[in-house]
Amino acid sequence: ATVGNELKYLARQYQQETAKNQSALTRQTEMNTTLQEKETEAALVTEQLTTAKTALDAQRNQYIQVQEKAQHNQARFEEAQKKMYALMNQVQQVRAKQRSLQDIQENYSGFYQGVRLVLKNKQHLEGIVGAVAELIDVPQDYTVAIETALGASAQHVIVENERDARNAITYLKENRGGRATFLPLTTIKARYLPEYARNQAQQVNGFIGVASELVESPASIQTITDNLLGSILIAEDLQSANALARALNYSYRIVSLEGDVMNAGGSMTGGATKKNAGSLFSQSNELQQLTAQAAQLDERLQTTEKQVQHFEAAAKEARAALDTLRTQGEEARMTAHELQNRLDHLQQELDRLQKEQQVFAFEHREVQAFFEEYAEKKQDLEEQQQHITAQLTKIDQDIRQMNVEEDLIEEKRQQLSEDVARLQADFAVQKEQTAHLQQKIAANAQAIAENEDRQRVLTRQIQALSSNASDHGFSEEALLQQIKEYAAAKDTLTEELGAIRTKRQALQLKIGTLDEALSSANLEQKEQLSQKTAVEIEKNRSELVMDNRLLYLQEEYNMTYEKAAQDFAAITDAVAAKEEIQTLKTAIDEIGPVNLNAIEQFEQVNQRHVFLTGQRDDLLTAKAQLFDTMSEMDEEVKTRFGEVFDAIRLQFKQVFPNMFGGGHAELVLTDPTDLLNTGIEIEAQPPGKKLQNLSLLSGGERALTAIALLFSIIQVRPVPFCVLDEVEAALDEANVSRFGHYLSAFQNDTQFIVVTHRKGTMEAADVLYGVTMQESGVSKTVSVRLEEVREGGRFAAAQE
How many CB atoms neighbour CB 610 within 10 A? Predict the structure, then answer.
């Protein structure tokens, strides 16, 4: 049956493989046609893609060139624009400073009150030429020396004649406008250095020249210039001035470039001079420089604006070309991308078709191999079938022989049964006979008993008869004869009964033996029939199970028994194998349905994963760099803060006692271990008090402590400009004086503008500005240069 099932399965598989092969051949033919079409289309798309990529590369190269050009133009434009903005800023600054200086000159700021009033009203006064300072041009290198040489004469007013001078003086008196010195051109005479003195001076090292020759002035006032500067010599330094003075017998005034003076007669004037950026000659020189600088900056600005316009136009043109190329490039890129996608799709189709071809080729080879194996396998199965048929024939013969033997046994059993029946019948007859004999024996026994009874009766009768012989007619001999007959009959019956009993026992033994043989034969027959039935049932069940398992193997695993036996080892533990199969099936079910596009999707996802991983790594690297930079900045801040704090703390320790006239103060960090987040506390101990926190001091002490801290900071980090608004309002007079003294100590490095009402602060100032309201709602600014005020409240100009 197994071979027959295998033959049936093989025939069914042959039919399936034949149909499958025929379908595969049909599909392969269609696939070959499709493959040729796809290959032709792929070649065409590849050619188009190559052309598109070539064009795209050309556009990319052109785009890069144009981009570099655009970036270059943009960089040039931005650079020129920055330069233009810088120039515009410089122009604005210069213009603002120029306007400020022009306003100062127009308002005659820096001039004495009387001079300023005359100059402002020179249009209403006749013969006013101008001030010496505004009419003389002094080179930058000689500004300090000429300004020192002229002194207050720089603010003298030049007039046409004496009448004009008298009119101006009258105007000042009428308007109470102060005083001024006037130089009439008709009365002032030139003063010159003698030739011998010039020759002697030229022989001394460090001699620069005569002051009047180092400046420029209009020819109309040259007499005034020669009068004021014609006899004054200019030297490089004080030592040169001393040498000149000795050479000229201390007869002339000599001024060094630094402003030191050797007066006629041998007296010397010198020392530190205040850096006064608002001097009259400095303002004039600076205004000229600013005017020239403004003109140069305007010219440069115009040139730069033209460059910016040119670069901007070029940058716009390049950006427009870049946008055009970008648009064309995007279109070309989209075209190339579409062609690439189309080519990728065709390549995927080709790969799929080639894979299917490979699968078909493999299946075709398997089918051919199956067809090749089919004949051999069929022949082997037919031979096996013939062999099995022969075996079955032999088995049938054996079965028939067994059936014959069984029939013989059955006949023998029937014969035995008949013999048993016959024997049973004989036994029954014998038994009946035995019963009859037993009955007869019993009857005979009874008869014997009766005879014995009769004998006893007869004996008694005989005895009676013997006693009464005469009464009876039997003789003793007749009775004895009758007794003998009866005894002989009894013996005969007893012998017959023994023989019957013996025969019955023999028959019973024979019947028992036959019954045992019959029972044994029946049991053996039943056992053989049961075995035969069980073998046939097991055979049919095994054939059914094998057919089911072969079918399951074919349908579930697409595999034959021979292939499975060849590729896999036999299973020793069926339970463990079933558990493993169930586990594998569960795992397969959990995996879900097979995704045929998993490889392509994996490539896409993997490509995106790689890209995102790279982006993440870049972000992490940038983050780490930012944290490193932040750490470096924190360390730099800590270092600089620590350095500056230590320096300010040391200065504060020195400034505080000077401001308070004693005492002690300290700057303390609230958290020295965390310089980025620490606070700063001020612990101060004014003279005569205990060390305490700043909040516990009085208002004046707190203000003076804050001022001391401010001065400490300025000493560590000087600033060019500082505005203070009534910071000393809460101080007493002594502390105000100290405050003013400290302000004066910083005047060389820092310019202070102080809003104050305290006299001590005002006394320390160089210039005072006040606001007055002479008329209701009209405010005017009043300024006083304290350096021009002499003792007794007199101005230097008035003394001159």
Answer: 10
CA distances 62 to 55, 73, 264, 322, Å, are 10, 16, 83, 9
Alpha carbon separation from 376 to 9, 56, 379 (Å, rounded): 15, 63, 5
Q: Is-contact 272 260, C-beta < 8 A?
A: no
The C-alpha atoms of residue 600 and residue 473 are separated, in whole angstroms, by 149
Q: Give the start-to-end residue ranges of the domains of the chain.
A: 2-83+292-403, 111-277, 596-717
If phi > 0 it is left, if psi is from -120 to 50 it is alpha, else beta; for residue 310 that is: alpha
381 CB-near residues (< 8 Å, 6+ apart) = 3, 6, 7, 10
652 closest CA partner among 668, 665, 670: 665
CATH topology for the 111-277 domain: Alpha-Beta Plaits (3.30.70)
The CATH number for 596-717, chosen from 3.90.79.10, 2.30.40.10, 3.40.50.1260, 3.40.50.300, is: 3.40.50.300
DSSP state of 789: B
pLDDT digits (tens, 9 = 90+) for 371-409: 777 677 777 767 776 777 776 677 667 667 766 766 776
- Report the alpha-carbon distance of residue 191 to residue 149 in Å, rounded: 14
pLDDT tens figures, 752-795: 889 998 888 888 888 888 888 777 777 888 888 776 665 555 55
Q: What is the pTM for the complete model shown?
A: 0.37
Cβ(128)–Cβ(119) below 8 Å: yes
State the CATH class of domain 2-83+292-403: mainly alpha
Q: Any alpha helices (H) in 558-698, and if so which ranges?
A: 561-567, 574-591, 598-660
| Pairing of the two strands 232-235 and 207-210 | antiparallel
Q: Tokens 């009203």 belong to which residue?
A: 121
Q: Strand runs (DSSP E) across 215-372, as ranges?
A: 232-235, 253-256, 261-262, 268-269
Cα 385 from Cα 3, distance rounded (Å): 6
**How many CA atoms does the CB half-sphere of 538 hold within 13 Å?**
6
Sign of CA dihedral 21, 22, 24, 25: positive
Looking at the predicted structure, is the pLDDT value of residue 680 above 70? Answer: yes
Give the number of C-alpha atoms closer than 13 A to the C-alpha of residue 60, restricted to the C-beta side: 9
The tally of CA atoms less than 13 A away on the side-chain side of residue 467 is 6
Which conformational region is residue 592 in: left (phi greater than 0), alpha (psi within -120 to 50 degrees), or beta? Answer: left
Alpha-carbon dihedral of residues 301, 303, 307, 310, nearest 10 degrees?
120
Q: Copy the structure tokens of residue 573.
A: 């533990």
| pLDDT in the model for residue 159 | 92
SS (H, E, C) 57-120: HHHHHHHHHHHHHHHHHHHHHHHHHHHHHHHHHHHHHHHHHHHHHHHHHHHCCCCCHHHHHHHH
Q: Of 198, 185, 270, whose CA–CA distance to 231 is shortest?
A: 198
CB of 501 closer than 8 Å to CB of 435: no
- Residue 370 near residue 9 (C-beta atoms within 8 A): no
Distance of alpha carbon 611 from alpha carbon 682, whole angstroms:
57
